[in-house]
Inverse folding.
């Protein structure tokens, strides 16, 4: 298949998975999880290299995945048992992980380039060519496999646990309101987000992943009130349309594709919230604190 | 068009018309094909420079990372990918210099002519870690000479009909490289051996050090995420003091601040050490300047190293 | 080898610069970090670091120069615009603060990356490593940095001290602040600007990770020990200073130990210590207390089992039962059972007898008391609250350990001295309290 079509497919798969996970994330007010994982993934990369001695993609991916899930899990636990703000707990975990990673690199891997930048900036333009080879046959871009799997996980979890999610995700931060069961579902969501995010880092990079996790849902929330289903559907649509828009602009200006899609998401969101604010300046919006 | 010619010329006169058109197209295509230079894409500017010097007018080479781009931080755009897929030959460095892109390039090798120049050089390589090879082989002109030989061989395979011209270009360039190599050996040897220590920002000069008999001391490792500590900084300061080193060197891809702080500390301790200048490590100079070529880059580096340390 | 003596330490200019500079930074950053944390914006450091990128990229694009005096102001301006958009989003649209942070962070960074990819294509000299320009390293501090950081620290402390009373009002009691005419928005924006400027300067000197950590860790740490704004600020500053000094020392004495990350490691260690051991919310201390309480409850339950068994047998004289008998009445995890059993033995409520164990006199009265409380509570719930019998039993299982004699007597009174509980069992009569 022509690489351009593959590019679109990969972008769309990433958009859909991230928009789904992202809605769960945003609703729980944990929007910064994606960015945090992009930093703590370095520790995963370093440990994967130190343990395996290899820099090949399966090991690096596994390392990043373990780091991502670990971050999500530990932060959630920290928030629940020690009653720290989620953002603060996140900050503690990812800065500590990153610091330990840098120390390990300086001690044991100074001369080994782990190409951590790739995780950050990604390269969706390369993804169509990064195929899986099984024996003699070419199975197609790895990104399509990983992202399809991530998308499947998201769809399965969300549809199977729809009612539970709706009930438990909209809880406040106060511990008394959340029972053990709710914590369990929130933990599950965090881990799902971590898996989606790390799978997407590989192909589209962290910049775009963080944007995809958060911006489509919030754009959708400008128009939708009180319906999780509608929010999800509209955020999916927005992410699809904006991805296409971003790809086209990047062809026109010859800029990095992932960054351009993320910029489009951001600019669209700003414009829409400006418009919405002018048309409906809500009295309740003016907060006193 | 059919209707028009049908009305004007009558249907049977069409046949010769089309036949001659057909011949014209075939012949022109042939001629055009002969004249179109081979489209080549190289990843680093250094590789593109070699290819340009050997291929001359026979090829049209484009560097994805032109002069000034740090390979460790390079990100391909869709235009780059288009160029890669439309290229008839792709040359890249290998040994993980291009990071993740290398996996893609390896896979591309199955469907189009893609060659890892550094990996096809038969020469002792420097191991940065257990299984990790230092990719900066262009720092050793003799190794880069071998790369040029490899490029020549590859181009000859793709352009068998132009082998005369290729040979001529190669011999000229080969001579230049050999001369350069000897020049660098001589110039570096002119530095008194006690002061023959190159202090730079990051560890890209291992091959240079080995080939030209100069010790290399670097603040940071190859890994872009590496950070240095106070101990490392002070240790290097002690080396400078002990060996009476007159100059330390900056690099374009590392913030100048780090080396400058090292220098300032020494000045405070009443040790005069100069900033010898900026070396080209991972990227060449501005295009269309002398330093924008491989030979220019190495010459420039050598010149300021010698001037600083003598 | 690096000199290990203390005198040599102070003769190393780089060491002095680093330690002075980092200490100044620690004071300033822990201070603004406390306010950022109170404003629920702990990750503002990370966000502003990302916001600064397009500033640097644009400045480089137009000036083609890498001079810090051009790039740093550009970075600050970009970060300030990002902060302004952030505040606008939170105030005007009903966006939650964490989403706003993530959106601005990723949006700005994407714009920066886009411009960088454009720059990459242009024939400008010195474009290599332009995005590294923004991220310094702690070990590279020089005298100029020390001056800049000292001035920053002084300015921050001066401003904060000047407005501290107003600030405290704005943060903790904004309604009151408004009624006294203090503009909440102005003070919030002032703090916002202070945080942004401090962060961008800091990042350029010591890098993102250390800056983010100095913003977050000291504040959370201090919170474990106090609730007062003054004390929060002081404890944050002290923690930050201590961690900085230790980090710098490690970086000095050992090779390949980067300064910034080691400071973060010490900040983490201090935080861990505070989280586990502080009296206010020390997780470990609470757990230990909880554990002790649990053991007492289990032991009381176990004693009551013997009491129930005792009442079930016909022969009141052979009152010994084995552990297995007990577990048949009420199942427990063996770990829990053993814990409670040991405690009951220790307290003398149970004693070994024959082939098993029996209630001692002390144990008997203890069990009887608890049973009384249990059944009174059941009676109370079922009479006054009309709750079903099983639910009443479950509630009483918990309540029996908490109710004391006074409450029990009161219940007895209210209920009119009942003799049977809702299950039809006898409610033990209160014995002479001297037997306890």
């Amino acid at each position: 298949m022509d690489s351009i079509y593959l590019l679109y497919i990969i972008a769309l798969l990433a958009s859909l998975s991230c928009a789904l996970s992202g809605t769960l994330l945003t609703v729980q007010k944990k929007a910064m999880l994606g960015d945090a994982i992009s930093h703590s993934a370095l520790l995963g990369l370093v440990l994967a290299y130190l343990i395996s001695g290899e820099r090949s993609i399966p090991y690096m991916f596994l390392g990043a995945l373990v780091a991502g899930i670990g971050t999500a899990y530990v932060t959630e636990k920290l928030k629940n048992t020690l009653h720290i703000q989620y953002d603060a707990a996140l900050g503690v975990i990812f800065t500590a992980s990153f610091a330990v990673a840098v120390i390990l690199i300086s001690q044991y891997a100074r001369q080994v380039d782990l190409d951590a930048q790739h995780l950050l900036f990604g390269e969706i333009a390369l993804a169509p060519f990064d195929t899986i080879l099984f024996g003699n046959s070419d199975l197609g871009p790895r990104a399509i496999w990983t992202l399809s799997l991530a998308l499947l996980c998201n769809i399965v979890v969300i549809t199977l646990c729809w009612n539970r999610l709706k009930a438990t995700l909209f809880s406040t931060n106060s511990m008394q309101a959340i029972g053990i069961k709710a914590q369990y579902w929130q933990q599950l969501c965090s881990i799902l987000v971590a898996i989606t995010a790390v799978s997407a880092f590989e192909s589209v990079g962290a910049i775009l992943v963080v944007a995809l996790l958060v911006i489509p849902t919030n754009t959708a929330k400008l128009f939708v009130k009180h319906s999780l289903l509608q929010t999800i559907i509209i955020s999916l649509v927005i992410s699809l349309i904006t991805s296409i828009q971003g790809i086209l602009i990047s062809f026109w200006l010859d800029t990095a594709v992932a960054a351009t899609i993320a910029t489009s998401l951001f600019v669209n969101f700003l414009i829409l919230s400006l418009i919405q604010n002018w048309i409906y300046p809500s009295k309740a919006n003016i907060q006193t604190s | 068009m059919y209707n028009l010619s049908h009305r004007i010329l009558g249907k049977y006169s069409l046949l010769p018309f089309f036949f001659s058109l057909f011949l014209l197209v075939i012949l022109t295509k042939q001629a055009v094909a002969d004249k179109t230079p081979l489209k080549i894409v190289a990843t680093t500017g250094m590789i593109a420079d070699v290819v340009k010097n050997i291929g001359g007018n026979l090829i049209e080479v484009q560097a994805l990372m032109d002069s000034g781009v740090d390979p460790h931080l390079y990100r391909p755009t869709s235009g780059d990918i288009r160029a890669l897929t439309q290229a008839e030959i792709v040359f890249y460095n290998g040994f993980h210099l291009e990071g993740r892109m290398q996996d893609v390039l390896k896979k591309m090798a199955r469907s189009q002519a893609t060659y890892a120049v550094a990996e096809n050089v038969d020469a002792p390589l420097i191991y940065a870690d257990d299984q990790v090879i230092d990719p900066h082989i262009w720092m050793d002109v003799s190794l880069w000479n071998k790369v040029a030989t490899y490029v020549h061989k590859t181009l000859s395979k793709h352009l068998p009909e132009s082998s005369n011209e290729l040979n001529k270009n190669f011999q000229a360039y080969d001579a230049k490289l050999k001369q350069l190599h000897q020049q660098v050996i001589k110039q570096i040897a002119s530095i008194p051996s006690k002061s023959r220590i190159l202090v730079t920002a990051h560890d890209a000069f291992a091959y240079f050090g080995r080939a030209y008999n100069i010790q290399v001391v670097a603040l940071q490792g190859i890994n872009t995420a590496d950070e240095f500590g106070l101990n490392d900084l002070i240790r290097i300061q002690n080396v400078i003091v002990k060996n009476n080193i007159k100059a330390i060197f900056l690099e374009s891809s590392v913030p100048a601040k780090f080396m400058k702080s090292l220098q300032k500390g020494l000045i405070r301790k009443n040790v005069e050490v100069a900033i010898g200048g900026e070396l080209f490590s991972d990227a060449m100079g501005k295009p269309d300047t002398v330093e924008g070529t491989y030979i220019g880059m190495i010459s420039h580096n050598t010149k300021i190293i010698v001037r600083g340390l003598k | 080898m690096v000199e290990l003596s203390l005198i040599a330490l102070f003769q190393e200019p780089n060491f002095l610069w680093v330690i002075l500079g980092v200490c100044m930074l620690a004071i300033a950053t822990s201070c603004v970090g406390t306010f950022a944390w109170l404003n629920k914006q702990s990750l503002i450091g990370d966000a502003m670091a990302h916001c600064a990128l397009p500033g640097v990229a644009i400045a480089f694009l137009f000036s083609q120069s890498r001079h810090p005096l051009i790039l740093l102001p550009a970075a600050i301006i970009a970060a300030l615009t990002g902060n302004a958009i952030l505040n606008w989003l939170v105030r005007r649209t009903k966006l939650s603060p964490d989403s706003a942070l993530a959106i601005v962070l990723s949006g700005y960074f994407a714009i920066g990356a886009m411009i960088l990819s454009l720059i990459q294509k242009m024939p400008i000299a010195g474009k290599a490593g332009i995005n590294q320009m923004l991220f310094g390293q702690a070990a590279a501090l020089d005298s100029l940095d020390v001056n800049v950081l000292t001035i920053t620290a002084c300015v921050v402390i001066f401003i904060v001290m000047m407005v501290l009373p107003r600030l405290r009002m704005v943060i903790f009691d904004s309604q009151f602040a408004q009624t006294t005419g203090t503009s909440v928005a102005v003070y919030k924006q002032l703090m916002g600007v202070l945080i942004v400027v401090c962060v961008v300067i800091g990042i350029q000197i010591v890098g993102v990770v250390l800056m983010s950590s100095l913003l977050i860790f000291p504040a959370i740490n201090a919170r474990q020990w106090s609730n007062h704004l003054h004390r929060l600020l002081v404890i944050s500053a002290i923690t930050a200073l201590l961690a900085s000094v230790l980090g710098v020392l490690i970086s000095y004495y050992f090779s390949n130990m980067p300064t910034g990350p080691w400071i973060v490691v010490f900040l983490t260690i201090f935080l861990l210590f505070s989280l586990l051991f502080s009296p206010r919310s020390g997780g470990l201390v609470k757990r230990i207390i909880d554990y002790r309480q649990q053991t007492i409850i289990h032991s009381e339950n176990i004693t009551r089992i013997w009491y129930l068994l005792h009442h079930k047998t016909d022969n009141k004289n052979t009152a010994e039962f084995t552990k297995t008998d007990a577990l048949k009445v009420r199942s427990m995890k063996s770990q829990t059972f053993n814990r409670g059993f040991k405690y009951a033995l220790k307290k003398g409520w149970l004693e070994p007898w024959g082939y098993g164990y029996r209630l001692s006199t002390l144990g008997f009265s203890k069990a009887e008391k608890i049973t009384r409380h249990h059944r009174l509570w059941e009676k109370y719930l079922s009479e006054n609250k009309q709750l079903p019998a099983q639910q009443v039993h479950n509630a009483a299982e918990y309540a029996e350990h908490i109710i004391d004699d006074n409450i029990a007597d009161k219940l007895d009174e209210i209920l009119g001295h009942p003799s049977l509980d809702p299950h039809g069992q006898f409610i033990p009569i209160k014995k002479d309290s001297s037997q306890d």
About this structure: The interface with chain B takes residues 2, 11-15, 17-18, 113, 117, 120-121, 123-129, 131-133, 136-137, 139-143, 207, 248, 251-262 of chain C (CB under 8 Å). Chain C has two domains: 12-281, 288-435. Strands of chain C lie at 350-353, 356-359. The first helix of chain C runs from residue 6 to 9.
